[in-house]
Design goal:
241 residues; mainly beta; Protein sof1
C-alpha cells in the first residue's frame, strides 16, 4: 500500500514576525487552472475601465482673459457656447467645439463683471450682464462678431441700479429678471426701474437664482449665511434658512 503525504518546510509556511505577510501555498500547474486566461483577461479589462474612470477630466483651456474670470453662464439652447466675464470688465463668448472666442466686448463694464445669464428661448441670441458699475446690460451676439480694433459692440438695452450688483438670473418663460446687491430686485425688460424690491435682514446678497420648476419662486444667498425664498406672486419673502 502506498501512502502520499504532503511535505512542507516550516520556514516556507510560517512568518518570522507578526508584521510579515502571510505566506500562502500556490500551485502553478496549468492543468489545475483551466480558466487562467479568462481570469487574466477580466482583470485586465477591469483595470482598463478603472484607469479610464479615474483619468483626469481636463480637456482644454480657453485662454484670452487678461484678468480673472468672475462670472460664467452656459446656454441650454446652444450647448456649444458659454459666456464669461472677467475682472477688467470684459465679456467673451466661447465656442467649445472650436475652443476659441466667437464674440467679445472688451469694455462691457467699468469694473468687475459679477454675473451673466442667457435670455431663455431657442431663437433668442441675447444675454444679460451685471457688474460693480451698477449697470445691467443686454447684449446680442448677432450685433457683432469679435470686435475689430478692440471696439465694444453696442448694447441692446441698459438698466441703471442704485447698488453694485453681485448676481443676475432670468425667469424661465416671462420677461423678468432678478438681480442681487444689498437687496433682491425684480426687473421687467420693458421698464427702466425695478418692479419690486425684496429684502430680509441680510447686508449683502451674494447670489440670486430663479426656480426652473416652480417659476414663481426665487432664492437668494446672503452674507449672513442664510438662504431666503421669495414668491413673485405676492412680492414677499417665504422662508429663511
Amino acid at each position: 500500500m502506498k501512502v502520499k503525504a504532503l511535505s512542507r518546510s516550516t520556514t516556507e509556511s510560517t512568518r518570522e514576525t507578526k508584521s510579515d505577510i502571510q505566506l500562502l501555498p500556490r500551485n502553478i500547474d496549468p492543468e489545475l487552472h483551466p480558466l487562467e486566461r479568462a481570469r487574466e483577461y477580466k482583470r485586465a479589462l477591469n483595470s482598463a475601465k478603472l484607469e479610464r474612470m479615474f483619468a483626469k477630466p481636463f480637456l482644454a483651456s480657453l485662454s484670452g482673459h487678461i484678468d480673472g474670470v468672475y462670472a460664467m453662464a452656459k446656454n441650454p439652447w446652444d450647448l456649444d457656447s458659454i459666456i464669461s466675464g472677467s475682472g477688467d470688465g470684459e465679456l467673451r463668448m466661447w465656442s467649445l467645439a472650436d475652443q476659441k472666442t466667437v464674440w467679445r466686448a472688451p469694455e462691457a463694464h467699468r469694473g468687475v463683471v459679477k454675473g451673466v445669464c442667457n435670455i431663455p428661448g431657442g431663437a433668442s441670441d441675447r444675454f444679460l450682464s451685471v457688474g460693480t458699475d451698477k449697470m445691467v446690460k443686454v447684449w446680442s451676439r448677432s450685433e457683432s462678431a469679435v470686435a475689430a480694433d478692440g471696439l465694444t459692440p453696442e448694447t441692446v438695452a441698459t438698466y441703471s441700479g442704485k447698488h453694485a450688483f453681485s448676481s443676475i438670473d432670468h425667469h424661465r418663460d416671462r420677461s423678468l429678471f432678478a438681480t442681487s446687491s444689498s437687496l433682491v430686485e425684480v426687473w421687467d425688460v420693458e421698464r427702466s426701474e425695478p418692479i419690486s424690491n425684496l429684502t430680509w435682514g441680510a447686508d449683502t446678497i451674494n447670489t440670486v437664482r430663479m426656480n426652473q420648476t416652480e417659476v414663481n419662486v426665487l432664492a437668494s444667498c446672503g452674507t449672513d449665511r442664510s438662504i431666503i425664498l421669495y414668491d413673485l406672486r405676492t412680492n414677499s419673502p417665504l422662508a429663511k434658512l
